[in-house]
C-alpha cells in the first residue's frame, strides 16, 4: 500500500512542535505493517541544507507564479519528497515566520502550493510510484483533499489528520481567486468559512476520512467548548472521524541508548538515572538536589496552561519542589516565568528558546513532567516522560486523559497508576495535584512504582500504526452497496 504523507514539518529535517515528531515517526512505524509511505514537505532553507544527495524527480513549471520541482532524498530508510520552490521557501526564520517571529504574509500561497504539489504527485506519481492514499496533516496541508477532488486523482482516498484544531489557516476571501479552485468551493461544503477562506475547513469537508490524535480529543472536538467553531462540521462528518492516539519514536527516545543524556538507565537500573538528575540541577543552577524537580517542555502559551503554571510557581517552591522550564512563546508568559525565576534563584530555572538536546536532558533528569494544558489533542511530552521515568502530572483533557493513569489509591494499589491528573485547569486544582505528587515523591516505594509502571507502559507506535493501516485498508476496500 502506497501512502503519500504531506506535512509542513517533519523531524529530523525541521521541527517546531509535535506535528514534526508524528510526521517523522509514521513512515517507519507503518512500514512494519507493509505501508510504503513517502513524505512531502516544503524545501525551507534549513531543510535544503540537510539533504544528502537529493535527486530532482518532477518539474512543476508553474506553481503559484513560480517554478518548482520535487526532489527525492532517502534518509534512514525514509523517502522524503521535498518541494523545492526558492521563491516560496528559501527564507530566513522558521517554517511559518520570518527572522523576527512574524508570520510570512504569503503563508496562504506557500501552503496552497504544498497542497497543489501533493495533488500533482497524486495524479502523476514520482517515477512509477503513485500513491493509493494521500494523508494530509493540519491546515498547511488542508487544501490537499480539496485540490484532489477537482483533479485526475479524485478517486484516490484522502485522510485529513487534525493535530490541533486551534490552527485553521484562515485567510481573507480575496485570496480565493488565486487558489485556482472552482467557484463552487467558496461555499458551505467547501473552503468558505464565515466569509473567509479556511484551509482546514476545506480539508475536513473534502477528505475521505478525518483523524485526530487521541480518542478523547476526537469526542471533545464535537462540542462547542473544544470545536473551535468547527464542531458542527465535525459532527456532520462523525461517521468518518477517528481518534488514533500518537505513539513516540522509541528508538530516538530510549533512555538506555539516548546519546543526548549523561547516564543511560533502564527499568532494572533506575538508580543510574541519578546522574541525569544531577546534570539537570547543574544546568538550571539548582542549589541542591532535594525535593522533586518539576519539569516543563512546552510552547509557552495559554493553550498549554502556562499562565496557571506561573500562578503556582511560588507554591512549588513552598512545597519543597524545584521547577525547570524549557520553552518559548507568549512574551507576557515568558516575563511571568522570568519573574518567578528571579524570585527563587537556585529553585526555579528557566531556559528560554528551543533546544532539542536539553529536552532530552530534562526528561532524563526530572522527577515530574508537568502538562497543565487547557486542551491537548494528544501531547507527546507526557509520553516521553513515561518512557524516561519522569512521572507525568497532566490536565485531564484530550490525549493527556488517554495516556496517563491517575495515582488514586485504587490505581496505586492495583499497580497501574502512571502519573497524576487534575481538572479543571485552575491554580487550585493544579496546586492540589502538586501536593499529591510531592507526598508520593516522599515515599520512595510509591514513587519507584509509579516510575516503573510508566516505563512499562506501551508508548510505541505499534497499536496506532495498526489502526492507521486498518483505516487505509478500509478506504481502499471496494464499497458494498447497502442491501
Ligand atoms: N522549547 C522547546 N525545546 C525543545 N523541544 C520542545 C520545546 N517546546 C516543545 N518541544 C517539543 O515539541 C514537541 C511538542 O509536542 P506536543 O505534542 O507536546 O505539542 P504541540 O502543541 O507542538 O503538538 C500538536 O501536535 C501533536 C502531535 O500530534 C499533539 O501531540 C499535540 O497535542 C498538538 O498540540 C515535543 O516533542 C516537545 O519535546
UniProtKB/TrEMBL annotation:
<comment type="pathway">
    <text>Glycan biosynthesis; glycogen biosynthesis.</text>
</comment>
<feature type="binding site">
    <location>
        <position position="15"/>
    </location>
    <ligand>
        <name>ADP-alpha-D-glucose</name>
    </ligand>
</feature>
<keyword id="KW-0808">Transferase</keyword>
<comment type="similarity">
    <text>Belongs to the glycosyltransferase 1 family. Bacterial/plant glycogen synthase subfamily.</text>
</comment>
<feature type="domain" description="Glycosyl transferase family 1">
    <location>
        <begin position="287"/>
        <end position="438"/>
    </location>
</feature>
<dbReference type="GO" id="GO:0004373">
    <property type="term" value="F:alpha-1,4-glucan glucosyltransferase (UDP-glucose donor) activity"/>
</dbReference>
<dbReference type="GO" id="GO:0009011">
    <property type="term" value="F:alpha-1,4-glucan glucosyltransferase (ADP-glucose donor) activity"/>
</dbReference>
<keyword id="KW-0320">Glycogen biosynthesis</keyword>
<dbReference type="Pfam" id="PF08323">
    <property type="entry name" value="Glyco_transf_5"/>
</dbReference>
<dbReference type="InterPro" id="IPR013534">
    <property type="entry name" value="Starch_synth_cat_dom"/>
</dbReference>
<dbReference type="Pfam" id="PF00534">
    <property type="entry name" value="Glycos_transf_1"/>
</dbReference>
<dbReference type="InterPro" id="IPR011835">
    <property type="entry name" value="GS/SS"/>
</dbReference>
<dbReference type="GO" id="GO:0005829">
    <property type="term" value="C:cytosol"/>
</dbReference>
<dbReference type="GO" id="GO:0005978">
    <property type="term" value="P:glycogen biosynthetic process"/>
</dbReference>
<protein>
    <recommendedName>
        <fullName>Glycogen synthase</fullName>
        <ecNumber>2.4.1.21</ecNumber>
    </recommendedName>
</protein>
<keyword id="KW-0328">Glycosyltransferase</keyword>
<feature type="domain" description="Starch synthase catalytic">
    <location>
        <begin position="2"/>
        <end position="235"/>
    </location>
</feature>
<dbReference type="InterPro" id="IPR001296">
    <property type="entry name" value="Glyco_trans_1"/>
</dbReference>
<comment type="function">
    <text>Synthesizes alpha-1,4-glucan chains using ADP-glucose.</text>
</comment>
Amino acid at each position: 500500500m502506497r501512502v503519500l504523507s504531506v506535512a509542513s514539518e517533519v523531524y529530523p529535517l525541521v521541527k517546531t512542535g509535535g506535528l514534526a515528531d508524528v510526521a517523522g515517526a509514521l513512515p517507519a512505524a507503518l512500514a512494519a505493517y507493509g505501508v510504503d509511505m513517502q513524505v512531502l514537505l516544503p524545501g525551507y532553507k534549513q531543510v535544503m541544507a540537510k539533504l544528502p544527495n537529493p535527486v530532482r524527480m518532477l518539474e512543476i513549471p508553474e506553481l503559484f507564479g513560480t517554478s518548482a520541482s520535487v526532489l527525492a532524498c532517502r534518509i534512514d530508510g525514509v523517502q522524503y519528497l521535498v518541494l523545492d520552490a526558492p521563491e516560496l521557501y528559501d527564507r530566513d526564520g522558521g517554517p511559518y515566520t520570518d527572522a523576527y517571529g512574524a508570520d510570512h504574509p504569503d503563508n496562504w500561497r506557500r501552503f496552497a502550493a504544498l497542497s497543489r504539489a501533493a495533488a500533482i504527485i497524486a495524479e502523476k506519481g514520482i517515477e512509477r510510484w503513485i500513491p493509493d492514499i494521500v494523508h494530509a496533516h493540519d491546515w498547511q496541508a488542508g487544501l490537499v483533499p480539496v485540490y484532489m477532488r477537482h483533479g485526475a486523482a479524485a478517486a484516490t482516498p484522502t485522510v485529513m489528520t487534525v493535530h490541533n484544531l486551534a490552527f485553521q489557516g484562515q485567510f481573507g476571501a480575496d485570496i480565493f481567486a488565486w487558489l485556482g479552485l472552482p467557484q463552487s468551493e467558496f461555499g458551505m461544503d467547501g473552503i468558505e468559512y464565515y466569509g473567509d477562506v479556511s484551509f482546514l475547513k476545506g480539508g475536513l469537508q473534502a477528505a475521505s476520512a478525518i483523524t485526530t490524535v487521541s480518542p478523547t480529543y476526537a469526542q471533545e472536538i464535537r462540542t462547542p467548548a473544544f470545536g473551535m467553531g468547527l464542531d458542527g462540521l465535525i459532527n456532520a462528518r462523525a461517521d468518518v472521524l477517528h481518534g488514533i492516539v500518537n505513539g513516540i519514536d522509541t528508538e530516538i527516545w530510549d533512555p538506555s541508548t539516548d546519546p543526548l543524556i549523561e547516564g543511560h538507565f533502564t527499568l532494572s537500573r533506575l538508580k543510574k538515572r541519578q546522574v541525569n538528575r544531577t546534570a539537570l540541577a547543574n544546568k538550571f543552577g539548582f542549589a541542591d538536589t532535594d525535593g522533586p524537580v518539576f519539569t516543563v517542555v512546552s510552547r509557552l502559551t495559554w493553550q498549554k496552561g502556562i499562565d496557571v503554571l506561573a500562578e503556582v510557581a511560588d507554591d512549588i517552591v513552598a512545597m519543597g519542589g524545584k521547577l525547570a522550564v524549557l520553552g518559548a512563546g507568549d512574551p507576557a508568559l515568558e516575563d511571568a516565568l522570568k519573574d518567578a525565576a528571579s524570585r527563587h534563584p537556585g529553585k526555579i530555572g528557566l531556559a528560554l528558546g528551543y533546544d532539542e538536546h536539553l529536552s532530552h536532558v530534562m526528561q532524563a533528569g526530572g522527577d515530574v513532567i508537568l502538562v497543565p494544558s487547557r486542551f491537548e489533542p494528544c501531547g507527546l511530552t507526557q509520553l516521553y516522560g513515561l518512557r524516561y521515568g519522569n512521572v507525568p502530572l497532566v490536565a485531564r483533557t484530550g490525549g493527556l486523559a488517554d495516556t496517563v493513569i491517575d495515582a488514586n489509591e485504587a490505581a496505586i494499589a492495583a499497580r497501574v497508576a502512571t502519573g497524576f491528573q487534575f481538572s479543571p485547569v485552575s491554580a487550585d486544582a493544579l496546586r492540589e495535584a502538586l501536593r499529591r505528587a510531592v507526598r508520593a515523591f516522599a515515599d520512595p516505594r510509591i514513587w519507584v512504582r509509579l516510575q516503573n509502571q510508566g516505563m512499562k507502559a506501551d508508548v510505541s507506535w505499534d497499536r496506532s500504526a495498526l489502526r492507521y493501516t486498518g483505516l487505509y485498508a478500509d478506504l481502499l476496500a471496494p464499497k458494498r452497496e447497502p442491501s
